[in-house]
What we know:
This protein is mostly helical and 365 residues long. The chain has 15 helices and four strands.
Amino acid sequence: MAPAALLAREADAMPEAKAEHTSRAAALTAQETGTVRFRSNSAPTTDVDVHWRIAPARQYATVLPVTSTANRPAVSAPTALSDAQLARYAVTALIEEAQLTPKPALVDRRGSGAHRDLDLATMLRSANALEPTFAALARVARRRSEPSALLRAELAQIGRAGEQDMLHATGGSNAHRGAIWIVGLLVAGASMPGRGPRLNASQICTLAAQIACFPDRFAAPSDSHGERARQRYQAGGARREAQDGFPHAIDIGLPALLAARASGVDENAARIDALLSIMVSLDDTCLLHRAGLPGLHAAQQGARRVLQAGGSSTPDGHTALVALDRALLSLNASPGGAADLLAATLFLDMLAHHDASGSSASWNT
């Protein structure tokens, strides 16, 4: 049977998948909202109105500044962005995440962090090798136009081929497997025709989550490091993050980035603080795999200390960041899952500003 026919037959034989998808999709629309006041550490006389949103599937220990859904920067209708443009945004997000320095125990301009098989040049080769994959994901999602089991299967097939391109570019090192899933789904969501004249970041995340709720019926049993950590520690992992609507990107990373900018810190520090905000509450399976619960707790507590000290741009915050970096390196622990979600955050931010040029100044306009 031809692959397309096999996919169609599988799609028709998935009542339980449709039921799961419907249940989760309904949950994604049931959001709670409220308003808090955020006081800048660097400009204590200035208050910034922000809002928070709690996804029903998970609540966080701390209320973090989040922009109102209504006030989030709108992303132009996907028809204004070609498949090639979306792919370039995705690659740029991966490159900008890799180059961001200093990140705790992650590959950056200083070196390899806790990764013996990766360096910045390898990360950049991997990111650029994935551009055709992201373009293909956008093209298929645009053609299918709405989440479905068939689309999920097609995207998975493209993603697996993209993994092979990544491994070929890196000489066998896993630089961006998680990012192919996280950012790739957002690329697919961003390429779909909008329900109105404009799509915002929240709608893109919801569409991507609806795709993720369908099972990948053609996937071989996974024995990846992340999957083993997910099962051992009962962590949600990248799969649950996507199915829940990317809360660490839309409800934590992006709002933290915008709030840091509003407080007056430079772009580099704003992005570091967004990464740290993600780390505070993420059950990062990369950390769990490499260093177990001690590594996860060290990362979460260390990131919290940096933010409580005023963020990475303050003297006390910088000292805390250096201590966090040393602590994670001593444990051979790396917050790779948080890095993938920072890339997702940057992708959404670039869509809002329609700029993948790499100019930090233009991201604020």
